[in-house]
Amino acid sequence: MTATELMTNWPDPSTNQVPTDGALTFVNTYAVLEVTGEDTEKFLQGQCSADIGSLAIGESVPGSICTVKGRVITSFIATKTNESVLLLIPRVLVPTTKEYLKKYAAFFKVSLNQWLHPCVIANPKSGQLPESLYVSCNFRLGEQGFHAGLLDQASYQKLADLLPSYQDKENQPAPESIWLDHLLEAGWLLLNNKTSEEYLPHQLNLDLLGAINFKKGCYTGQEIIARMEYRGKSKKRLKVISLSGHQLTNESLPLDIKTADDSQPLGELLQLTSNAKLALALLPVELPSEGSFICDGETLEYALQNNV
User: Fold this and answer.
1) pLDDT tens, 203-232?
2) Predicted TM-score (pTM) of this structure
3) Structural domains in the chain, sorted by start
4) Which of 115, 151, 210, 233 qualifies as a cystine partner to 156, CB 3.0-4.6 A?
């Protein structure tokens, strides 16, 4: 089995019982946009909702990059190194995010580099990988903590030599879905090409997840985001809900949600866990804690798992 095969073919979670904490997981769904150069901090401060300027080397913080209208292009986890800032973002959004930032980067001494090789490992310390191999990315989303390792191309090539030690039955990598499910349970939406530029940060609860700093100063979209914080109120927010009824898949999302009598728009179903039992849905703030709605032409029973 080659390194690439191991990083793209995951064990079936229904037949492989693996611990949810401390399991070594190779994550292809996320990749890295690296920002380097002497103006890196100044450039990112003008583009990100997070306070990149306050980051010490080795620290990580969640954030977002928004359009001038305040719509979220991508959310990210930023990690500062000696030479750069690494933005951990959904893989499918790395090229489009890079293209968006290029028009601003032209005025700064910075370079934007895509890491599209398999470069993200969840819980690498638990897998006993050498810490010199990766950049640690420790971050919190609300009350939940996460750990990942970010590999540059050279480190990825070194990792290929270590992979045989993870191919025995007692030390198999965990399926990627475990890590992604944990992010969903924390309320972190995996944005994609369909949902990018569709939502305001408050709708995605980025203000509650520590991804917006309201004291850092101006950045693209900041005026609209600040107005929502101080003068407005988001009528809908992302909610973690349990589901029962009709089986859905992430491939079919996003889907419109209607009231139980199928008469009024209610919100959108945006992401499911691997077993489709939990979901992230954009729903009214004042939604009852449990009930039913119509989605994909079927009635689904729901129960709120968070109190947003």
Assistant:
1) 999 999 999 999 998 999 999 999 999 988
2) 0.91
3) 3-185 (3.30.1360.120), 235-304 (2.40.30)
4) 151
